[in-house]
From TrEMBL:
Coiled coil: none annotated. InterPro entries: LOG, LOG_fam. This is Cytokinin riboside 5'-monophosphate phosphoribohydrolase. Its EC number is 3.2.2.n1. It comes from Pueribacillus theae. GO terms for cellular component: cytosol.
């Protein structure tokens, strides 16, 4: 586990606990010699975690689309800043660089990034661990919705376990080391027919 991609908000949120959680996660990454990969911004929880990792002597790779970089919200002190053409390219690059993924509290963009990477795992496009850092129970309603999808048979039980959850950065990363991806989803029967 050398690189972890973190999805998080471009705002700090209503609770001081979110900022504190970003600081704890940043320190934990440095303690384990894990490079932070993230969206390249200098604002919100994105800026907090990047600043923490840099302050603690760690490495940070930011990936930002050109249109956001041009708005001058990119972080100018990163170990490396990769400028890409689109949001799609950004997500693909962040996925390629990652050995695992963590979603911290954030808005629709954070959820969209996490759900896409979850779906890729479900389809067998990667076998990397992914988890929710459930600071101050932020993700409880989201977790309940995933449970509802499973209960209503839109999510296989074996795929529900793709989403690792903890409120502690250290415990969540520990779960990454023990993660075993589920078998790849298939609609084909043994004879190759649908």
């Amino acid at each position: 586990m050398k690189h972890i991609t973190v999805f998080c908000g471009s705002r700090v949120g209503a609770s001081e606990a979110y900022k504190d959680g970003a600081i704890l996660l940043g320190k934990e990454l440095v303690k384990r010699d894990i490079t932070l990969v993230y969206g390249g911004g200098s604002v919100g929880l994105m800026g907090v975690i990047a600043n923490t990792v840099l302050k603690e002597g760690g490495n940070v790779i930011g990936v930002i689309p050109k249109f956001l970089e041009e708005r001058e919200i990119s972080h100018l002190s990163l170990t490396e800043l990769l400028i890409v053409e689109s949001m799609h390219e950004r997500k693909a690059k962040m996925a390629d660089l990652a050995d695992g993924f963590i979603a911290m509290p954030g808005g629709p963009g954070t959820l969209e990034e996490f759900v896409e990477i979850f779906t890729w795992a479900q389809l067998g496009l990667h076998q990397k661990p992914l988890g929710l850092l459930n600071i101050d129970n932020f993700y409880d309603p989201f977790i309940a919705f995933f449970n509802h999808m499973a209960e209503q048979q839109f999510l296989l039980e074996k795929h529900r376990g793709i989403m690792l959850v903890d409120s502690s950065p250290a415990k969540l990363i520990n779960k990454f080391y023990n993660y075993e991806p589920p078998a790849v989803k298939s609609y084909l029967k043994e004879d190759g027919q649908i």
